[in-house]
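sorry for the late reply, my laptop died twice this morning and i had to redo everyting from scratch. anyway the thing you sent over, i finally got around to it. pasting the sequence first so we're on the same page, its 334 residues, then the predicted structure underneath. double check i copied it right bc i was rushing
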Amino acid sequence: MRPSGFRCHFNLRMRHTARPNQPEGPRVSSSDAKNPVKHLSGKELHKLLDRYRVTDGKGFRLKDWDPDDTAGRLIDKAHATALLNGGVEHLATLQEKLYAQDRWSVLCVFQAMDAAGKDGTIKHVLSGVNPQGVTVTSFKAPSPEELKHDFLWRAARALPERGRIGIFNRSHYEETLVVRVHPELLDKQHLPPELNGKKVWDRRLGAIAGFEQYLADQGTVILKFFLHISKDEQKRRFLERLDDKAKNWKFSTADLRERAYWDNYQHVYEQAIAATATPHAPWFVVPSDNKWFTRLVVVCAIVDALDRLDLRPRDLTADETAALAAARTKLMDE
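ok and here's the structure:
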C-alpha cells in the first residue's frame, strides 16, 4: 500500500545545495515561489529521507556527509517546529495501531559521538507516545554478567516485543566502535585467544548483519540513526556545558578524553555503517549540528516506516467476536 505520510506546512526557500551523489530535496515550482507555504507530500517526504538513508554500504564515505546540512535550506526552522509537532502527534497514533495489531515490532538504534543530541532527540520524538508501548535501553559499559556472554546477548534481551517500539540509546554497535578504538577492552571479554585477532571486527560486523536480518525476518522493523556532529559543534556544546551551571552535570571528563580519538571514531563508524547498511536495516546519517533538524529527520523516518506497514487492528476470531457480543448483552441486561 502506498504510504500516506503525514502532512504539514513548510516554508520553502529558493535555495538548494544538495550533497554530492545524493537525491535532491523537494524543488520549488514557480507557483510555490508565489506561495512559499505549502504541504509536504509523501513524495517530498521520501526525497527528504532518501537524502540521509543508506541501504548499501558500497563506496560509503563519512566525509561526504555534511553535519550542518539542512536539506539545502529548503526547510525553514520557524516552520520545522510545526512539522515536528505534527510528526510527534502522528507517531502517537501509529504507535496505538502498532500495539493493537500486535504483529510488528520496531527497533530504533541511536549512535553518535558525545554531545550529538541522542537523549534530546529521543525525548522530543517520543514525547507524545504511550510510555507503556515504548522501551528505552541505554547501553553503558558491560556488567560482569554481560561480559560472560557473547557480545549480542544483552542486546537480544532488550529487544521489543510485538506491538512495541524499542529504543537503543547506544547499542550492540558499541562492540565494534568503542571497543575497536580501545582494543584493550577485549581482554575483559574472556574470548579464546585464537578468536581475538585482526578479523574479530569483520566477524562482529558480519554477526550484526546476520542478527539484523534474522530480526527483520521475524517482523522487527529496524531503523538505525547515526547523529553526525562536527568536531567544531561538539566543542561548542562542551563549552556550553562548562559555562552554564545548569548544564554542568552533562559534562564528563571522559567525553573530553574520547574527543582525542575523534579521527579513530570517524573511521570505525564509517566501517560499521558500510558493513551493515541494508534495505531491511538502513542507516540514516542524520546531520546533527542543528538540533531542530536532527529531530525532524528522525521523526519523519519513524513515521514513514510505520506508515508503510498499513497498521490496523487485527481481525477478531469468531470466538472473540462472540465473547464481545455476550459481554454487550450482559451489560445491557443490568
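Confidence is low (pLDDT under 50) at residues 1-39.
thats about all i looked at so far, will dig more tmrw
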